[in-house]
């Protein structure tokens, strides 16, 4: 009998004999209360409306790694665009029609001899206005500290094993710029069009913790 | 010509965008980024003057010494000019 646990009673268990999971609610933190207070004051004083706040959240949620993947795929097929991207990644992203607001973006290129990795050791700076919200691990102290101390060990845990002749360049987003990795185009993709190439570009490959998929 | 700089070792209180692990370390200017409002004032809603911002490249050997995972790997960070002394 799979659910016969003679060592303890079923009291407080679900009908199938498993413990109920605790609610995922905790008390508000100081800063959550602060955010609510400031937001309510701004609404009361007519500076913003709740609809505008909701619309901004929708706008941010609509941004996704697919935007960055489109930029990367364009750079893979268009050498002039790639040159403009490496010169000014904000302008190149806007050229493709992405609304990235005031984002100051730098693209760093992976080559046969260089692998780039993005981190923000101080907080969680991320090119949100192009790629959307960062993955949870990007904001952890473990990633933020280990990415600058032992980037190759971190990369191995993500499944990226780099040969010794490849230099790792870590980019710590400490101030006003944000970074996106331009991964190297995978071998065997000569026949693919731009949309098919974009489907190979993962979020992690634009952070540097991954490589693009291969077809 | 590469321009070598050392990050100042000062430890002022408050909101500072210069990571502690780079203070006192020597790197080279990778590129100049132009002027940006000083976050040390901006964070407190104070009038913030524009300060030049640089991307500085450090070797892992410089940052971590003998403990470096791979000495020739590098870390780049954005450091404001008032945190740098030219060598």
Indicate the CATH topology of chain B.
Answer: SH3 type barrels
CATH architectural name of the largest domain in chain A: Alpha-Beta Complex
Q: How many DSSP helices of chain B?
A: 2
> What Rg of chain A do the Cα atoms give?
22 Å
What would you say this structure looks like, in words?
By secondary structure, chain A is α/β, with parallel strands linked by helices. Chain A folds into two domains: 31-61, no CATH class; 64-207, Nitrile hydratase alpha /Thiocyanate hydrolase gamma (Nitrile Hydratase, Chain A), CATH 3.90.330. In chain A, 40% of the residues lie in helices and 10% in strands. Chain A has helices at residues 30-44, 50-62, 65-77, 79-87, 89-95, 128-131, 141-149, 151-157, 194-198, 203-207, and strands at residues 105-109, 114-119, 167-172, 178-182. A two-stranded parallel ribbon of chain A has the order 1-4. The radius of gyration of chain A is 22 Å and the shape is globular. The mean pLDDT of chain A is 94. Chain B has 87 residues and is mostly beta strands. Chain B has one domain (4-86): SH3 type barrels (Roll), CATH 2.30.30. In chain B, 10% of the residues lie in helices and 41% in strands. Chain B has two helices and five strands, in the order E-E-H-E-H-E-E. Chain B has a five-stranded antiparallel sheet with strand order 4-3-2-1-5. The chains are: A alpha/beta (215), B mainly beta (87). Strand 3 (167-172) of chain A pairs parallel with strand 4 (74-80) of chain B.
How is the secondary structure organized here?
The complex is a heterodimer of chains A (215) and B (87).
Chain A: H1 30-44, H2 50-62, H3 65-77, H4 79-87, H5 89-95, E1 105-109, E2 114-119, H6 128-131, H7 141-149, H8 151-157, E3 167-172, E4 178-182, H9 194-198, H10 203-207
Parallel strand pairs in A: 1-4, 2-3
Chain B: E1 4-7, E2 26-37, H1 39-42, E3 50-59, H2 60-64, E4 74-80, E5 84-86
Antiparallel strand pairs in B: 1-2, 1-5, 2-3, 3-4
